[in-house]
Structure formats: structure tokens, C-alpha cells
Amino acid sequence: MINKGTKIKKIVTEHIINNKKEYIIVALLFIIGIFLGVMFINHIQEEQKKEIQTYLNSFIQTMKETDKLDYMSLLKTSIGQNIFLAIIIWFFGTTVIRNTSSFWNSNI
Predict the structure, then answer these.
(1) Among 11, 25, 61, 100, which residue's Cβ finds the most Cβ atoms within 10 Å?
(2) Residue 20 and residue 101: Cα distance in Å, rounded?
(3) How many Cβ atoms sit within 10 Å of the Cβ of residue 99?
């Protein structure tokens, strides 16, 4: 009898192996995003750095002062603020019509 954890691990491993090109592309985009973010922060003006620092410090201070979070209220607020963006991304994602199989099956 196969352990449930082992079965899940096997399925995840197979999925990663079968979709390794996609995982490599996503990992590269993530690394590029981090690199560009660091470059942006290193080359902004001192006033903008202070604004970012103030924003982050006030956020951290607010989180420290909050005794108990109302998770349901936080979830509703987050969904409400991001629903428009999600709809726009979904709409533009569904309007992309092209055959990408030749791209993914080519030798990179």
C-alpha cells in the first residue's frame, strides 16, 4: 500500500518533470523581476527612498499594533480591491488566440 504523502510527492514530481519548460520560464521571470526591483531601488532619488521606507515602516508598525486580525474582513477587502484587476487579466488572457504548440515544442 502506497502512503498518501508518497503518492502526492510522486504526482508533484511527475508534474514538474512534464512541465519543466514552464517552470524554468516562470523561475527566470521571477529572478529577472527581483533583479530589476533591486536595480530600481538602487537608482531612485533619496526622496523616493524615504517615501518607500516610511510606507514600509508604517505597515510593519500597524501589523505589530494589531492584536487580532479579522481574517474574513481582510479577505473581503482584498477580494473587493483586486476583483477589477482579476477580471481585466482574465479578459485579456482569454482574448489571446494563437497556436503556441509550435513554440513550446521547438528546441530551446
Answers:
(1) 25
(2) 15
(3) 6
Q: Which residue has the higher pLDDT, 10 or 81?
A: 10
Answer whether 21's CB lies under 8 Å from 108's CB. Answer: yes
Instruction: Using CA atoms of 47, 48, 54, 56 in order, give the dihedral in degrees to the nearest 10.
Output: -160
| Whole-number Cα distances in Å, 88 to 9, 26, 30, 80 | 35, 21, 22, 14
Domain ranges of the chain: 4-104
Say how far apart CA 96 and CA 94 lie, in whole Å.
6
**Which cell goes with 67?**
492584536
Residues in the chain: 108
What's the pTM?
A: 0.48
Decide if 21 contacts 104 (C-beta within 8 A): yes
Let me know the angle formed at the C-alpha of 43 by 38 and 44, rounded to the nearest 5 degrees.
105
pLDDT single digits (tens) 57-95: 998 898 888 878 788 888 898 888 899 888 988 888 877
